[in-house]
């Protein structure tokens, strides 16, 4: 096996040989092997985040007709390193009345919760931290840790803005878990496995083309889960300053920020794995090195969508946001799950139909029908009535009391329809 | 454009014989009302005679200059009809010792902040005022700074130009002769070192008082929390503070706290000469400098009479510049309203891009992008340079209409914008008039009141434009009305650019000193934020005796609590954004 065919395996073999040649105990060898692996997997994400911040700033700048960072290094790519060193050098301020233990644990937890997810992300055919057979369940379970860190930070800071941010976090993150997990179940159902790599392996046709509505639900729910616009209520700058991390400074704030960016990237990668065929692409079987490339291209596309939405939309108010999840997304995802399960069973188990085109066609038809029904129901049941035209009685135009008012003085009345 | 209301002249004096008398002082055209009958007269004016819009309340300190004169405070009221027409000026006089005037706040809620300001700066007690506290100065301040006998710590002389300044002789710094701490004044027994702004019982008491009307949710044990939004807060557009009493995320009571940028603009204005004040008005609402110039120029020109009539070309230049200012201010307001809604700067940057083009024109014409100092009494400071008029024509015929449509297309029907803005911060037409709201705030509430039409000034009567009006009074309408007004302003500029005549841009020479006869005048223009008015009293000397600004941002804030109660924290920010305040003007 040469280095270029599969560098990871090649290096892992070298390490294994080295450890064996040192005559270590087999358990020690396994432990060292795993620690090295875990370090590599978790640092991939953290290193990518540094460039991700630069990329996001650059993209957002382009959406807003400006240049973005362009001074530090070529294309400003060193900007994040500058920011990072500033954060490290900054004084670490802890409020007097803060509850010290949760206050200090919260930033660590916020990064840890995200890094843990990377354990089950398949980078290539056989490159995966650990191929859990309940990978999807693991993602859902570990992802919820993040809420805990927000809650701890908000409560421990002893600040009203932070507390408000934590209030909102509880309401938002817990609500959006529900549709998120229902949407997550659909690829599981189609692939008949909870292992992430098995789901990727089963995507001869990417699931986004089989169950587009599930992708939509998952994407919206993950936007809420990572607290990105239009669901960035936990740290709504214009309302509650910085939300739960108002009282953090220096690298502790940096960890929250890195955690947030990493969370976005992680969910983009998970979306890519579950719906966009993960590492799959031409020649990936022959050359596993292409796997991560494909995966990150797809994740990059999802991330681009996230940045695009962030630069274009304003923020939703908390009660509207809860309306969307409980009255729309949750019922929709339940119905979709049932319909997909039924269709899949009818076609595959009972009908024994193996014609891919027919299968995909039927699935898409079911998706489209459900989406249309949902939109129809939403528009019918929408309790918020559009404003009636002219709430107030029109009054005459105010003009000086002269015998002849100027002819041009007419009232423009362009009330919206 | 006289300040009199001829139709009412007979009626008012006849109706209250001996109570209301015509102001006989030279240059004054209002009525003097007996102190104890003020409420009665105001009630009749509001209910029977239709003067339902109290535009401005202010005080003047007539400190005796000679032995035989009498010293007194005068509180001046400018009343208008919301159906249009010119002002009715009322004045009441009160002695300088223990001055007290009946409050008009129960009749005109819009007087609330203005009366507090008069109390703060003059020490006039308004009896029956619901919330009589200082508003611009801080709680521990000693004295009433606008009184003529009050001296600031670095007092040099009563009026400028000071003798120690160039070119009169030697220049020295007053601080060296009068070190800080020597003449600072504090209340009896006050220790500045131990004073803490945390002890703000008066403010929090007033919050709890207005909370009394709120119905608590039954069967739910909740605790109300006081949160101070500001003074350091990302969306208060400056150092502005809202003390908010909240039940969960719902607003129960709200009190604006301002004055962090207070610099006693009006006192400085009284030290300055008339011409000195022109650049000083730029600093009020620094987004709309040219409109501020316009209002002040009108007030002083009224006093100057025939000498102060601007040339025709000057009038056109003034209208063009004022309307361009309105466009730039509204673009700014729309962009930052979206920021308050949580959009990540994209809409504001798109709007600011267009504003930059307008600032380029201001720079080419006036020499400065924001602090323009362009208007003069009887004209403007200089003519358009070559090519600028063509550039303005290009902008208003090609680029701006397209860009406004673009903003409209991107924002107006955005579902999130609509759900966030519709039905939020509603003010009914009657409330809007009661609270003395002005400008887009008033017109979004269905009152088609635009000073350009209601009490025409300059040459606005010659232009063909519509007064935009909307009928819901919510944040969404305030956004739409700004878009409409940009379009109407573009129409006006298009017409003005076409018709502008040749000629002088200034009547007479551009003097260092203007002679302003004694009298009072109120110059009001329709500024982008609302009616901006300047009340100027001259005693015939080189400096104004009284220089008062009717600041639309400040007065529009009176209704902030009314608009916010019952909504969420997120809405407060949006409502504040829709009022479009500039702290330089609020705090003065």
Oligomer: heterodimer
CATH architecture of the largest domain in chain B: Orthogonal Bundle
Chain-averaged pLDDT of chain A: 80
Examine the coordinates and then state which fold CATH places here, giving the name of the CATH topology of the largest domain in chain B.
Answer: Cytochrome-c3 Hydrogenase, chain B
List key phrases describing it.
heterodimer, A: about 425 residues, mainly alpha, 2 domains, disordered C terminus, B: about 600 residues, alpha+beta, Beta Polymerase, domain 2, Cytochrome-c3 Hydrogenase, chain B, five-stranded mixed sheet, three-stranded antiparallel sheet, 20 helices, 16 strands, disordered N terminus
Kindly describe this structure.
The complex is a heterodimer of chains A (417) and B (588). By secondary structure, chain A is mostly helical. Chain A folds into 2 domains: 1-86, no CATH class; 90-388, no CATH class. Helices cover 65% and strands 0% of the residues of chain A. Chain A is globular, with a radius of gyration of 26 Å. The termini of chain A are far apart. With 588 residues, chain B is an alpha+beta fold. Chain B folds into 2 domains: 6-127, Beta Polymerase, domain 2; 265-587, Cytochrome-c3 Hydrogenase, chain B (Orthogonal Bundle). In chain B, the strands form 5 sheets. A 5-stranded mixed β-sheet of chain B has the order 1-2-5-4-3, covered by helices on one side. Chain B has a 3-stranded antiparallel β-sheet with strand order 8-9-10. A 3-stranded antiparallel β-sheet of chain B has the order 14-15-16. In chain B, β4 (72-80) and β5 (88-94) form a beta hairpin. In chain B, α9 (312-340) runs antiparallel to α16 and α10 (346-366) packs antiparallel against α11 (388-411). The chains are: A mainly alpha (417), B alpha+beta (588). Chains A and B meet through α7, α11, α13, α14 and β1 of A and α9, α10, α12, β13 and α16 of B. β1 (411-412) of chain A pairs parallel with β13 of chain B, so a sheet runs across the interface.
């Amino acid at each position: 096996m040469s280095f270029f065919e599969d560098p990871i395996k090649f290096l892992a073999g070298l390490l294994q040989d080295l450890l064996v040649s040192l005559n270590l105990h087999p358990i020690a060898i396994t432990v060292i092997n795993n620690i090295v692996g875990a370090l590599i997997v978790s640092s991939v994400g953290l290193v990518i985040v540094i460039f991700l911040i630069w990329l996001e700033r650059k993209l957002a700048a382009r959406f807003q007709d400006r240049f973005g960072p362009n001074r530090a290094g070529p294309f400003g790519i060193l900007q994040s390193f500058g920011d990072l060193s500033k954060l490290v050098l900054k004084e670490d301020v802890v409020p007097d009345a803060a509850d010290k233990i949760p206050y200090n644990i919260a930033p660590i937890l916020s990064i840890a919760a995200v890094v843990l997810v990377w354990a089950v992300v398949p980078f290539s055919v056989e490159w995966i931290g650990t191929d859990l057979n309940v990978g999807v369940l693991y993602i859902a379970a570990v992802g919820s840790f993040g809420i805990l860190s927000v809650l701890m930070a908000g409560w421990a800071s002893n600040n009203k803005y932070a507390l408000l941010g934590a209030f909102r976090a509880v309401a938002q993150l817990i609500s959006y878990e529900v549709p998120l997990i229902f949407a997550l179940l659909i690829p599981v159902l189609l692939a008949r496995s909870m292992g992430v790599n098995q789901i990727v392996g089963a995507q001869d046709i990417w699931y986004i083309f089989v169950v587009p509505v599930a992708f939509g639900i998952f994407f919206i729910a993950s936007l809420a889960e990572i607290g990105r616009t239009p669901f960035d209520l936990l740290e709504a700058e214009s309302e509650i300053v910085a939300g739960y991390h108002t009282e953090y400074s220096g690298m502790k704030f940096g960890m929250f920020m890195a955690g947030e960016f990493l969370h976005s990237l992680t969910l983009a990668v998970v979306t890519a794995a579950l719906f966009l065929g993960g590492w799959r692409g031409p020649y990936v079987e022959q050359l596993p090195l292409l796997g991560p490339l494909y995966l990150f291209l797809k994740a990059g596309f999802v991330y681009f969508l996230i940045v695009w939405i962030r630069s274009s939309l304003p923020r939703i108010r908390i009660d509207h946001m809860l309306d969307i999840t409980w009255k729309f997304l949750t019922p929709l995802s339940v119905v979709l799950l049932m319909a997909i399960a039924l269709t899949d069973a009818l076609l595959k188990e009972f009908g024994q139909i193996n014609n891919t085109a027919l299968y995909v066609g039927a699935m898409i038809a079911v998706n489209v029908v459900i989406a249309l029904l949902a939109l129809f129901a939403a528009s019918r049941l929408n309790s918020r009535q559009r404003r009636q035209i002219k709430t107030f009685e029109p009054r005459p135009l105010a003009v000086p009391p002269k015998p002849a008012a100027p002819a041009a003085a007419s009232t423009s009345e362009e009330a919206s329809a | 454009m006289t300040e009199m209301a001829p139709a009412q002249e007979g009626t008012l004096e006849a109706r209250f014989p001996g109570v209301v008398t015509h102001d006989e002082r030279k240059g004054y055209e209002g009525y003097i009302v007996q102190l104890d009958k003020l409420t009665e007269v105001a009630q009749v004016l509001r209910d029977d005679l239709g003067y339902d819009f109290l535009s401005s309340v202010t005080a003047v300190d007539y400190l005796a200059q000679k032995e035989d004169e009498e010293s007194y405070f005068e509180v001046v009221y400018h009343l208008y009809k919301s159906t249009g027409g010119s002002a009715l000026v009322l004045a009441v006089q009160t002695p300088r010792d223990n001055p007290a005037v009946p409050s008009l706040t129960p009749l005109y809620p819009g007087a609330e902040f203005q009366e507090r300001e008069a109390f703060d700066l003059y020490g006039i007690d308004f009896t029956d005022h619901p919330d009589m506290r200082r508003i611009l100065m801080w709680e521990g301040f000693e004295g009433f700074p606008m009184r003529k006998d009050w001296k600031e710590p670095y007092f040099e002389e009563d009026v400028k130009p000071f003798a120690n300044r160039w070119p009169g002789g030697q220049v020295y710094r007053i601080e060296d002769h009068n070190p800080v701490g020597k003449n600072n004044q504090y209340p009896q027994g006050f220790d500045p070192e131990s004073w803490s702004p945390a002890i703000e019982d008066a403010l929090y008491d007033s919050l709890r008082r207005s909370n009394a009307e709120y119905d608590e949710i039954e069967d739910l044990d909740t605790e109300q929390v006081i949160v101070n939004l500001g003074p350091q807060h990302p969306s208060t557009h400056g150092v502005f503070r809202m003390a908010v009493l909240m039940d969960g995320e719902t607003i129960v009571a709200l009190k604006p706290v301002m004055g962090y940028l207070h610099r006693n603009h009006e006192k400085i204005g009284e030290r300055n000469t008339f011409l000195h004040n022109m650049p000083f008005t730029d600093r009020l609402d620094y987004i709309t400098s040219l409109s501020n110039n316009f209002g002040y120029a009108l007030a002083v020109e009224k006093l100057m009479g025939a000498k102060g009539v601007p040339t025709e070309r000057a009038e056109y230049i003034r209208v063009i510049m004022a309307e361009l200012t309105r466009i730039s201010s509204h673009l700014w307001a729309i962009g930052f309203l979206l920021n308050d809604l949580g959009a990540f700067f994209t809409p504001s940057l798109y709007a600011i891009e267009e504003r930059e083009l307008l600032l380029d024109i201001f720079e080419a014409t006036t020499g400065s992008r924001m602090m323009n100092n362009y208007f003069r009494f009887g004209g403007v400071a200089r003519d358009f340079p070559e090519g600028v008029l063509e550039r303005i024509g290009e902008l208003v015929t090609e680029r701006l209409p397209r860009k406004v449509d673009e903003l409209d297309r991107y924002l107006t029907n955005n579902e999130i914008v609509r759900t966030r803005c519709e039905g939020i911060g509603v003010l009914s037409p009657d409330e809007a008039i009661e609270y003395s709201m002005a400008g887009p705030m008033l017109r979004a509430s269905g009152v088609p009141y635009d000073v350009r039409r209601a009490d025409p000034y300059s040459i606005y009567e010659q232009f063909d434009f519509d007064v935009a009006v909307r009928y819901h009074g919510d944040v969404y309408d305030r956004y739409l009305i700004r878009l409409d007004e940009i379009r109407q302003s573009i129409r006006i500029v298009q017409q003005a650019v076409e018709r502008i005549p040749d000629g002088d841009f200034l009547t007479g020479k551009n003097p260092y000193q203007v002679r302003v006869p004694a009298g009072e005048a109120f110059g009001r223009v329709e500024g982008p934020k609302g009616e901006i008015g300047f009340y100027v009293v001259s005693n015939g000397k080189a400096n104004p005796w009284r220089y008062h600004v009717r600041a639309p941002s400040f007065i529009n804030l009176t209704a902030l609590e009314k608009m916010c109660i019952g909504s969420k924290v997120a809405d407060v920010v949006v409502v504040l954004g829709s009022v479009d305040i500039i702290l330089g003007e609020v705090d003065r």
